[in-house]
């Protein structure tokens, strides 16, 4: 299955549906979807890495926490992630790295400020050959 | 459901409310433990996360719960109105240089750093003292503080309950607007409905005013994110089950409940300080463009917050925690905590409209105390999704249409602008009429925009 994402409509805010053959692929696509809302991804070069280590009580929470890392790096460390590479994952945790570059006002074409990742209508659908994630964001 | 649900609307607004999950969310909130009175939705209500936006719910201070989702991610998102000594005519020829200056000095949009960058130690002072910190730094005067809900400082704040991550997200965002529906709008008073109240608030026809709509930025968002997690875990220990994870809650009288409320208050203080620093930027802009303008705070209200208040429920006075998720406090005359000058009139209730439409100043009523825990609506409320709004109009067309109406726009992002197109919202006047007819606030004045800056 070719991994990918699409932006979902929501009465007030915005969601992301992402998919891949594995959970890691689908999650990486959700990260790409989130990034595409915040910044024009074509203006970001993946020149630096930031390692992330996330622990969570279940797989849904793992999605929320991983995407929240993107928001934290952006606001708190002025780093614009572009892609996620997952090194290892279990339902309760994940290690990986976010590639991107430090925020540069004139280089990066900013779009909208995403406030948070929510548990609203959050779902992780695992099928034998594919995984689909649905997640909504507070704008 | 443990309590009843109740939605304020007219025939048109209820149709919009029925189109999304608002009703279900009002019902979901009604299942929370220890709720008193009713689970309420204001006429601007629309589907949110866990709570509907426009939701009000009160829980018993001793037996009830606090829900981080019931306050929302943008803790103390709120509105502040500044009244100038200038008229619409004074402003109309200088609106362009004014907006340019505001757009230059008030960072808006994603990824913008604020006018002040703080060390973590100094940030702790902001979290503890709110607008008082800002005034002490020279961003405003002590008079300003009298005209802010809670004087711009929740004393229950404890910066040590705010995570380092939240502090890192917020430390250089003080004095920034953010994006989404946040704005600074230059307006004039188009109509006065209640002369004595308007006079008390210092508002008169054709006066130029400025409305600020923003909140606690990344700091508040991270506080909510952190405590949703804490609450989900702790809920199991307290044997609480919720129908939607976003409604995660813990007993008010638990360690986690107390920690959240102390962190929420700290984030609320950050938002009060944020609006105070932005006010300073607006005053400087008026100073340079108009050589003055004497911008005085009419009021500053929070519309995403939980507050401990005393309300009469079934004939008994009770201490309750009122969650206002997209709802404005609307206290009547003689209520505790009002500015002395407003005590014979009531609290100003500030209702921002969507971009390019009108905004309203209302005043709180006794009826609101009886029916809605002293709460009223908070805006127009979205009617269309961002995607639908974007499909219908281009940024160029929107700017042209607004220009035609005499409204100038400066926006950091073109897609951000179209997502906030006025057509994406319900009719704010219809929302305000419902509030007025239900008696949960009374109209004082209508404000029409002259220019707006948006993230």
Could you characterize the architecture of this molecule?
The complex is a heterodimer of chains A (139) and B (455). Chain A is an alpha+beta fold and 139 residues long. Helices cover 25% and strands 41% of the residues of chain A. Chain A has helices at 23-38, 59-77, and strands at residues 4-9, 14-20, 48-55, 79-90, 93-102, 116-117, 123-126, 131-138. In chain A, the strands form two sheets. In chain A, strands 1, 2, 6, 7 and 8 form a five-stranded antiparallel β-sheet that branches. In chain A, a hairpin with a 4-residue loop joins β7 and β8 (131-138). The longest helix of chain A has 19 residues, at 59-77. Chain A is globular and about 45 Å long. Chain A starts with a strand and ends with a strand. The model of chain A has no long low-confidence stretch (mean pLDDT 94). With 455 residues, chain B is an alpha+beta fold. In chain B, 36% of the residues lie in helices and 25% in strands. Chain B is built from 16 helices and 17 strands. Chain B has helices at residues 11-19, 22-29, 88-92, 95-105, 120-129, 131-136, 142-145, 164-170, 195-200, 217-237, 255-290, 366-371, 386-392, 395-404, 414-419, 428-438, and strands spanning 5-7, 35-46, 53-60, 65-67, 78-87, 183-192, 207-214, 249-251, 296-302, 304-313, 316-325, 328-329, 348-351, 359-363, 375-376, 408-411, 442-454. In chain B, strands 5, 6, 7, 9, 13, 14, 16 and 17 form an eight-stranded mixed β-sheet that branches. In chain B, β10 and β11 form a beta hairpin. The longest helix of chain B is centred in the middle third of the chain and has 36 residues, at 255-290. Chain B is globular. Classes of the chains: A alpha+beta (139), B alpha+beta (455). Chain A binds chain B through residues 7, 9-14, 38-39, 57, 60-61, 64-65, 68, 71-72, 74-78, 80, 103, 105, 108, 110-120, 122, 136, 138-139, and chain B through 19-21, 46-50, 53, 72-74, 109-112, 165, 168-170, 173, 178-180, 218, 221-222, 224-225, 228-229, 232-233, 244-246, 248, 382, 384-388, 412-413, 415-416, 419, 455.
